[in-house]
């Protein structure tokens, strides 16, 4: 990524901070764990008054993704382990998406996308 954003982009990332809002359940906590990991690796710091404010979409959307009928799921077994894997995958996708959009905002690359719109499109 450093090559693509150049020295100025790196300086912007190292000077920026972020804040997360709306950690209300296990799923949003898991998603924000992914977001934090990516943003820390990009050089941002977490600060309650951060330059970039991040929040999860309405939990109803996450519910729709994680409660698809069994016929539409892969690798779901009787123990429900597959459903747990699905929740983990949703958390990773949401968290990484938020991190990428935060990085775009900090370096001034395009417009910030909406995680909620992206998830609605996936339904």
Summarize the entry for a quick read.
This protein is 60% helix and 9% strand. It is built from five helices and three strands.
Topology:
Blueprint: H1 2-15, E1 17-21, H2 26-42, E2 45-46, E3 52-55, H3 59-66, H4 81-107, H5 115-122
Helix pairs in contact: 2-4
List the main descriptive attributes of the protein structure presented here.
mainly alpha; 5 helices; 3 strands; 60% helix
Give structural notes:
The protein has one domain. The longest helix is centred in the C-terminal third of the chain and has 27 residues, at 81-107. 60% of the residues lie in helices and 9% in strands. Helix 2 (26-42) links the parallel strand 1 and strand 2 (45-46). The mean pLDDT is 80. With 123 residues, the chain is mostly helical. The protein is globular, with a radius of gyration of 16 Å. The protein has five helices and three strands, in the order H-E-H-E-E-H-H-H. Strands 2-1-3 form a three-stranded parallel sheet.
């Amino acid at each position: 990524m450093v090559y693509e954003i150049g020295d100025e982009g790196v300086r912007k990332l190292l000077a920026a901070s972020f804040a997360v809002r709306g950690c209300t359940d296990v799923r949003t906590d898991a998603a924000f764990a992914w977001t934090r990991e990516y943003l820390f690796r990009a050089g941002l710091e977490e600060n309650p008054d951060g330059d970039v404010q991040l929040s999860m979409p309405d939990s109803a959307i996450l519910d729709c993704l994680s409660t698809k009928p069994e016929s539409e799921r892969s690798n779901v077994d009787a123990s429900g382990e597959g459903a747990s894997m699905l929740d983990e995958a949703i958390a990773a996708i949401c968290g990484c998406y938020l991190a990428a959009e935060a990085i775009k905002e900090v370096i001034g690359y395009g417009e910030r996308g909406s995680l909620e719109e992206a998830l609605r499109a996936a339904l």
